[in-house]
What we know:
Blueprint: H1 2-6, H2 19-22, H3 26-42, E1 58-62, H4 69-85, E2 89-93, H5 100-107, E3 115-120, H6 121-129, E4 141-150, E5 153-156, H7 165-174, E6 180-183, H8 189-201, E7 206-209, H9 213-222, E8 227-230, H10 232-240, E9 245-249, E10 276-283, H11 288-302, H12 305-311, E11 315-317, H13 322-343
Parallel strand pairs: 1-2, 1-3, 6-7
Antiparallel strand pairs: 3-10, 4-10, 4-11, 5-8, 5-9
Helix pairs in contact: 4-11, 6-13
Amino acid sequence: MELIRNQRLDATAPILGPTHIRRQDGLRRRAAVVTLLGLVTTGAVRAPNAWAGGTGIVRLVVAAPPGGSSDLLARRLARDMQPALGRPVIVENRPGAGGAIAAAFVARAAPDGNTVLLSSSGDAVRQALHPERAIDIRTDFVHVTQVAATTNVLVVHPSLQARSLAALVTEARAHPGRLSYASAGNGSSGHLAMEMLKQRANIDMVHVPYQGGAPAFNELLSGRAPLMFTNPDQALPWIRRQRVRALAVSSLQRIAVLDTVPTVSECGFPGFEATAWAGLSVPRGTPASRVGALHDAAYIAMNGAMRAEESSIGIDVVSSSPERYDAFIRSEVGKWAELIRLTGLDLD
C-alpha cells in the first residue's frame, strides 16, 4: 500500500483562477482574483465570450445512472455552470461497461466543447487494466479541471452482526466466500477499496457489480447485499437513520461528517487509502478557447453554493488547471498499472 499512500490526493491544494487570470502577473493576478471572487458572490460573472458563436446545449455525460454520487455531483455542477456559460447545461446518463460507454461516446463527439465527460478515478483504473482498448483517457481527451475528491465509507446492513471492521474480518475468515459485497461497477472506487481490503486482510468475499452506485446501494438497503464501500454523500442519510451501519472510512484521516467512524488504517491496516475523484474532460481537438471557457465556468461554479453543499456531505471541491489535471490523470493511470503489476490484482 506504500504506492497508494505516496500518490494520495491533495484536496487542500489552492484553487486556481480562470484561464485569463492565470496569464496575468503579480499584483494584476491577485487583483483580478479578488475582483472575480467578489463578482461570484453576486452572481454577476459569465465565462469569457470565447464561447460566443456556439449553438445549442452543453451535455455533461456521466457514466452512472441517475441518483448516485457521480450523478448528483454532475447535476450540482451543471446547475452552477449554466449561468456562467450563458447556455443550458444538461446531465446525460450513459452507464455501463465500467464507464467505457460514456468515455467512448464523449471521445467520438464533435470537439466543440458541447459534449463534456465527468471523468473519474474509474477511467484511470480502466485504462490501467485494459491499455489495449480503443479509447485512451490520456490521449483521446483534453482535460479541463479536477472537480472533486472524496473517501469511501464501508457500510453494512443491520442484519450483519459485525459492528466493527475487526469483527467483519473475523467473520469473513471463518466463512470464506460466503459474504458478498456490492459495488457501483468493475473498477469503481468502492470495488477497488474492497479488493484492497480483501488483499490486506486475507479474506475472500464475492463481488456483485451493478451499473452505478444508486442500484448497488438499493441492494444494500434491501439486505440483498450485506455490505459495500460507497461515497459519504450516498451513505450519510441512511447512517443517520440507522438503516445501515458505518464501520470504517478509506481515507488516511477521519472525515468531519463521520468523525466517530475510524479509518481502515486505524483498524489494523496501516497506510490503507482508497479515494475517489472526478473532473471534466472533452474530446481531443476541442479549441483552447472552449476549454478555457469551460474551465472558467467550472471555477465559478466551484466557488459558489456548490462548495458548501459538497463539503456538508464529505466531498472536497478540488480545482486545477487543464495541464495539472492532465498530469494528475496520467499519474493515476501509472499508479494503478504499477499496483496491478506488483500484486496481480484482477478486477474483472
